[in-house]
Amino acid sequence: MLGRIVIKHGNRLLRITLIGPECTGKSTLSKELGKRLKAPVSKEAAREYTAQKKSPLAPEDVEPIARAQILSEDNAIERADTLVIHDTDLLSTCVYCKLYFQSVPEWLTERAHSRMADHYLLCDIDIPWIADGLQRTPVTPEERLQHLDEFSATLKRYCCSVDILRGNRAERLETALNAIRLWRQQDPS
Predict the structure, then answer these.
(1) How does DSSP assign 5-65, residue by residue?
(2) Residue 1 has pLDDT above 50, yes or no
(3) pLDDT digits (tens, 9 = 90+) for 134-165
């Protein structure tokens, strides 16, 4: 892979990443998009890691989570033809490092930048928080807004192409499908 461009079967591979605070429907929407668009989906490595660890995350967990995220993304890319959906990526890992550990390792920032998706779908916090037992802590509405603001700032800092997903599940799905359709129409390859 050179930079962010991946060539598969003579076509440019479009990489779409769902990103945003916890409990905003990213995993559910990623699966639905993959199903609708017949595209492979990479899973959120931090979610699986947290489920296996069964204790609060610490700074030493960042590297294994990042490595697992890279592997998850690469496995989905290998199965893709022209489109792949990522249920978060390393930018998300960077945001959570900053929020929870107050610093981001330089190597993680560099890897995240080199692996950025073509387009991001930022999930808003306008749906209720539903605890599933894997989150760090139940967060207040103010903390959710702080998390959303940090995701927005990170995407802006990296000049990412972004659409914001708001509303109920059907509305978010429709917005996501339209964003992907428009991106595909604009892509010259």
Answers:
(1) B-EETTEEPEEEEEE-STTSSHHHHHHHHHHHHT--EE--HHHHHHHHH-S---GGGHHHH
(2) no
(3) 656 667 889 999 999 999 999 999 999 999 99
Q: Can you tell me which residue has the tokens 């990042």? A: 66
Is 2 part of a structural domain of the chain? no
The residues pairing with 19 across neighbouring beta strands, listed in sequence order, are: 122
- Contact between residue 36 and residue 180 where contact means Cβ atoms under 8 Å apart: no
Number of domains the chain is built from:
1
Q: For residue 162, what is the domain's CATH number?
A: 3.40.50.300
**DSSP letters spanning 141-174:** HHHHHHHHHHHHHHHHHTT--EEEE-SSHHHHHH
Q: Amino acid letter at 188?
A: P
d(CA 111, CA 52): 24
Query: Rounded to 10 degrees, what is the CA torsion of 166, 150, 63, 6?
Result: 60
| Amino acid, res. 96 | Y
pTM for the full model? 0.91
Q: 126 lies in which domain range?
A: 7-186
CB-side neighbour CA atoms (13 Å) of 75: 12
Cβ-contact 80, 8 below 8 angstroms: yes
